[in-house]
């Protein structure tokens, strides 16, 4: 699965620089995650870094973008090529 930022986001700016795939960007009102770039940090880290630094815990799994670890790893290989 990709991750999603909920409307509980406080725009604290800590998640964006943590993303190794540049999947996080400022949206109209809150930060957003591009599901085409999000690998949940598979290939880079053991855990999603944005979730680790988020002070309000507003970055859950996105149920609309379900992917296995294998699919996330394939996406990582394509993105990092």
From TrEMBL:
<dbReference type="Pfam" id="PF00037">
    <property type="entry name" value="Fer4"/>
</dbReference>
<protein>
    <submittedName>
        <fullName>4Fe-4S binding protein</fullName>
    </submittedName>
</protein>
<keyword id="KW-0479">Metal-binding</keyword>
<dbReference type="GO" id="GO:0051539">
    <property type="term" value="F:4 iron, 4 sulfur cluster binding"/>
</dbReference>
<dbReference type="GO" id="GO:0046872">
    <property type="term" value="F:metal ion binding"/>
</dbReference>
<keyword id="KW-0813">Transport</keyword>
<feature type="domain" description="4Fe-4S ferredoxin-type">
    <location>
        <begin position="31"/>
        <end position="64"/>
    </location>
</feature>
<dbReference type="InterPro" id="IPR047927">
    <property type="entry name" value="YfhL-like"/>
</dbReference>
<dbReference type="GO" id="GO:0005737">
    <property type="term" value="C:cytoplasm"/>
</dbReference>
<dbReference type="InterPro" id="IPR050157">
    <property type="entry name" value="PSI_iron-sulfur_center"/>
</dbReference>
<keyword id="KW-0411">Iron-sulfur</keyword>
<feature type="domain" description="4Fe-4S ferredoxin-type">
    <location>
        <begin position="1"/>
        <end position="29"/>
    </location>
</feature>
<keyword id="KW-0677">Repeat</keyword>
<dbReference type="InterPro" id="IPR017896">
    <property type="entry name" value="4Fe4S_Fe-S-bd"/>
</dbReference>
<keyword id="KW-0249">Electron transport</keyword>
<dbReference type="InterPro" id="IPR017900">
    <property type="entry name" value="4Fe4S_Fe_S_CS"/>
</dbReference>
<keyword id="KW-0408">Iron</keyword>
<keyword id="KW-0004">4Fe-4S</keyword>
